[in-house]
Design a protein that fits this description.
Distance between the termini: 22 Å
Number of strands: 5
Shape: elongated
Strand content: over 45%
Radius of gyration: 16 Å
Order of helices and strands: EEEEHE
CATH topology: Ribosomal Protein L24e, Chain: T
Number of helices: 1
CATH class: Mainly Beta
CATH architecture: Roll
Helix content: under 10%
Structural class: mainly beta
Number of domains: 1
Strand order of the largest sheet: 4-3-5
């Protein structure tokens, strides 16, 4: 499944895990992406959306 939101283009971020002894290892911050059926301009589409876009009024979820 895609790791990019189709509406806001949110994608994984990168950083470090930091231990108590201050050792650093690479890690990834993944967005919370869900497949959803939405209505855009009267057409039904299947999109990969982050939960922030699903909760906002940017799109109308088809039922």
């Amino acid at each position: 499944m895609s790791k990019v939101c189709d509406i806001c283009k949110k994608k994984p971020g990168f950083g470090n895990n930091v231990s108590h002894s201050n050792r650093k290892t690479k890690r990834m911050f993944k967005p919370n992406i869900h497949k959803a059926k939405v209505e855009i301009n009267g057409k039904l589409m299947h999109l990969n959306l982050c939960t922030k876009c699903l909760k906002s009024t940017k799109i109308k979820k088809a039922i």
